[in-house]
Each structure stands twice: as C-alpha cells, then as structure tokens.
Write a sequence for this structure.
C-alpha cells in the first residue's frame, strides 16, 4: 500500500513556495510534476548512455538504442499491448492523433464519409479531423452532449451508421473529468466497421487501461501528463492497421531504402518515427511508467477517486459554486471544473495563486464543449498522485477568499 | 493586501454594471479584440462627429479586469477628440508599464488625471493580468487606426 503523503517527497518542486505559501499544484490535467526518479533517469541517460539510436555500430549507440527500446517495451506493457512494436513514439497525444487522422484518413476517406466526434473533445481531437475532412470531403458529425455520460446515449445508434468511417473520442474529458461512453461507442462503431480512435491523454495517466479490453483501433497518450518528460508520447495501434497505415512524416530513421524517386519504409513502428526521436524523453517516459507501476494504477485510481469525492464534498459547501460534469465518482476522474458566482475564472485563478494554489482557468482547449456548457471559461482543479486533502483545503480556503473579495460572502 | 488593491470596489462596480454596454446601430467604426490565451473577448463601436467621439458601445466577455477596463475606457473616451483619446491611451499604457510608486502622470498637466482608470494600477503587481487590462485599449487603438484609414 502506497503512503501517498510520503510519496510527495519524491517531487522536488513541491518544496517550493509561491507567493509565500507552499505550492499547491492542482493543474495535472495540463501537465504533471516530475518525481526525482524521472528527472534522474533523464539526467543519468545524458551523463552515461547518450547517443543517437538505431544508427551507430559503436557500443554507446547500442546502449542508447537498448534504453530507448526498453522504454518502448515498458509503455507496451503498461497498456497491455501485444508487442512493443505496437507502440509508436510520438511528440505527444496531439501528434499521435494527427498521425492517425492524416496517415489513415487522407488515403481512405471520401466525400460522403462521416467522421464522428463528441462535443467533449480537446482541440487536438477536433482540428486534425477538420483538416482531413477539408482534404477528403468527408463530413464531421458531433454526437450531442450529456453532462453525466458525456454523450447523449440515445443518439449513438442513429448517428453511427454505414456512412461513418471513424469514431474518435476522448476516454476522459479534460474539462469535466467525465468518462465517455466507451463501450457503447465501440459497439456502435464495430457494427458499421468504423475505425475507433481513442484519445487517452487524460485516461491513461489515471486509470488502468488495457488495449486488449478497450476495443479500440488506436489509442493516443502523452508522457508529460503521467509524470514523464514533455516532448514524447505514444500511439498504440492494432498491428495490422499500423502495417497498413501510411507514415505522415518522411525522413531519416523511417526508411529501409531510399531511391531517387521513391523509398521503402522501415518496419513498424520505425516507419512512423522520422528523424531523431525524443530519446532521453522516451527513457524518462519509461522511468515514469516504472514509478506508476510501483504504485499500481488501481491504487492511483483509488487514491484519486477518494480525493475527488472529498473535493466534490468540500466544494458543495461553498455557496454559489457550480461543478460541471458527473456527480458520481465512478463515472469521472479527478478533473473538476467549476464556476463560482459571477467571479470570472481568471479572477479565481489569480486569487488562488496568491495563496500558492495553481489551477487552470479558461476554455481548456475545448471550445465546443464550453459553448455547449454555455460558459466562456471555467476554473479547473485537477488531481494526481501527489495531491492530498490538505491541497483541497487550501483550494477551498482560497475560494472563500475570492467570495469575500467579490462581496459574495 | 495586493489582492484588495487589485479588486477595488470601483473595478468590481464596472465589472458588474458595465457602462456603455451594447452595440451602436449607427457606429462609424467597429473593432474587436481577443486574448486567445485566455479567451477574453472585447468589441467596441464608436460614433464620431467632427473628430469627437460622441458615443461608445462595448461588448464581449471576460474577466473583471478586462471588462472593467473596457467600461472605464468607454466612459473616458466619450466626449473626447480623437487626438485626446490617443493621448489618453498613451498615458494609460504608461501607467500600466511603470514601476510601483512612480507617478504615472504629471498632476499639473491639464486633463492629466485618469480618473477611475487609476484604480487599474493594482494590476501592475500581477504581470499575467496586464494583458487583460490592455485588451480594450488595444481594441480602441485598432478602432482609431481604422477610423483614420477610412476603413469602417
């Protein structure tokens, strides 16, 4: 059993003070802080084993390649992929989603085809599909929103018909924390042979995810939202689809032969990794996975669920405060968006910052959802393994101060 | 203390009861501005007669600082000539960029006072929020430039 209080000592930044108060970091949905184990893994790699990968015949290059490929194997095991070659290292979830939209969609979508999305998508799972729609003539269709289930379930069957080429959706909203109706969407998509693309940027860091159970064709996620470095993420894909999919980028490292007018691709996953990859970042990603594995993802989920329940209970005590998204902690993760009276989210964030509490304020790169919720901006507190009830108490104290300053108390 | 200085009563009053709110049907110029990073939006209509701003109408959505700044700006520009408004915008910019403790304007100078706008001085302690206060003024400058270019 993990002592989550002691685990905080692994995160050097949590020793910091902000505006004279201890840092209370509640913005892990944007990016997470890093434990010393990850920082040291990156640093040690640069100090002792760094070289380019898949190129050199010298020993150092071989050691670097082994470290990079070990990280890939760790990522594969983490989501229970069949083989490390099912994991493509990318710059992050955004690149992963673009890779599928372009690599798969550009060649295969046509006028009359439909791309089905939900209204709770992050811009990274909206804009790539808009680009592909523009190039192919395919049409974007949005499933209507429901605050509890993310999607109006009654609309799924009628929307996902034979015209649908792909259903792409987030497993967990970065605004409401709500889980999408994954099983229902997968089932409907399978029934019409549509491709299923899951944005796991929020879900993979916080929940046990098993691609064998998921039923998806592709899963995208980022290292920096799960204790790892920025600049690296992953795309998991079904092996037969990765074989078939075209690379979205060309360059070094992704070819087996280059002639003057055409080239042959390297085997999967390398054909998707043009150029020098984020090598040290991938090694850090592996260390982050080691760290999470040591806690265990079911324990991570249990801790966050308990803390989410506490947060929702404490926020319910504050007059004029409205929480968006599911009430039931079984249906949501630790991403909690809220509005407080007529106080704008930016003002809330400024007031909290004076108390050392870091929350996000704004549209959270999800403008379609903000319009659906009929708010221009929300304040968002998001949790991770290093948060405790003390952090939530500081949040609540800051919100009380905001009410006083704005004459609501 | 800094927060009390930021959220002064006059700012909250302009935030909750914005003056000159609403589009002008006979505007001579219309401009819009936004801060993409935070999503604040501001729009401005001006009616101009013989080089004097006779009416201002504001719209948009955002935080207390951007909306109060816009309301105070609309109040301040109404009845002033375009040249006076340019000068006012300049003095506002100076006020928002100088160090704490310095006097932004020479009090001896005619029309030097910024009136309610001086309440926004508290924003300087919060560098990330200065762009909120600036948004309506950037929109105003855009409107004046359009006006002078005859682009309405």
């Amino acid at each position: 059993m993990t002592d989550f209080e002691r685990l905080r000592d692994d995160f050097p930044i949590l020793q910091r003070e902000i505006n004279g108060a201890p840092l209370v970091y509640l913005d892990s949905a944007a990016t997470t802080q890093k434990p010393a184990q990850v920082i040291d893994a990156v640093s040690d790699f640069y100090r002792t084993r760094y070289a380019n990968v898949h190129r050199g015949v010298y020993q150092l290059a071989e050691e670097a390649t082994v470290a990079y490929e070990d990280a890939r194997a760790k990522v594969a095991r983490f989501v229970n992929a069949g083989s490390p070659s099912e994991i493509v290292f990318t710059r992050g979830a955004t690149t992963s989603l673009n890779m599928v939209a372009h690599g798969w969609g550009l060649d295969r979508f046509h006028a009359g085809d439909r791309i089905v999305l939900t209204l709770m998508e992050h811009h990274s799972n909206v804009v790539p599909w808009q680009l592909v729609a523009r190039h192919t003539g395919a049409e974007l269709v949005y499933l209507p929103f429901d605050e509890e289930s993310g999607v109006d379930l009654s609309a799924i069957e009628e929307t996902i018909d034979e015209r649908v080429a792909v259903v792409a959706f987030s497993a967990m909203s970065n605004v409401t924390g709500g889980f999408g109706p994954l099983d229902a969407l997968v089932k409907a998509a399978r029934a019409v042979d549509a491709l299923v693309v899951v944005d796991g940027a929020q879900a993979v860091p916080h929940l046990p995810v098993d691609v064998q159970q998921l039923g998806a064709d592709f899963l995208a996620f980022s290292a920096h939202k799960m204790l790892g470095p920025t600049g690296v993420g992953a795309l998991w894909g079904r092996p037969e689809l990765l074989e078939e999919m075209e690379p979205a980028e060309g360059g070094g490292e992704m070819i087996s032969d280059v002639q003057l007018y055409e080239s042959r691709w390297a085997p999967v996953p390398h054909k998707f990794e043009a150029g020098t990859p984020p090598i040290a970042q991938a090694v850090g990603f592996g260390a982050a996975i080691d760290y999470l594995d040591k806690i265990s993802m079911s324990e991570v989920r249990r801790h966050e669920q308990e803390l989410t329940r506490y947060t929702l209970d404490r926020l319910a005590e504050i007059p004029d405060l409205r929480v968006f998204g599911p009430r039931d902690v079984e249906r949501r993760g630790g991403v909690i968006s809220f509005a407080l009276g007529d106080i704008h989210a930016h003002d809330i964030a400024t007031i909290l910052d004076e108390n050392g509490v870091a929350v996000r304020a704004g549209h959270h790169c999800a403008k379609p959802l903000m319009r659906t919720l009929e708010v221009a901006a929300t304040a968002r507190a998001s949790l991770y393994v290093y948060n405790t009830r003390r952090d939530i108490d500081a949040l609540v104290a800051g919100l009380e101060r905001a009410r006083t300053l704005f004459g609501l108390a | 203390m800094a927060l009390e200085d930021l959220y002064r009563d006059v700012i909250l009053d302009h935030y909750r009861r914005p003056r000159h709110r609403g589009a002008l049907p006979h505007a001579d110029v219309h401009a819009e501005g936004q801060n993409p990073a935070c999503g604040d939006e501001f729009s401005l209509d001006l009616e101009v007669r013989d080089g004097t701003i006779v009416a201002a109408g504001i719209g948009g959505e955002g935080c207390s600082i951007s909306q109060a700044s816009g309301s105070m700006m609309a109040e301040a520009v109404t009845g002033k000539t375009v040249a006076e408004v340019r000068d006012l915008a300049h003095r506002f910019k100076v006020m928002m960029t100088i160090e704490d403790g310095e006097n932004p304007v020479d009090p001896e100078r005619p029309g030097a006072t910024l009136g309610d706008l001086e309440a926004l001085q508290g924003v300087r302690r919060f560098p990330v929020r200065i762009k909120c206060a600036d948004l309506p003024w950037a929109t105003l400058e855009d409107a004046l430039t359009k006006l002078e270019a005859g682009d309405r």
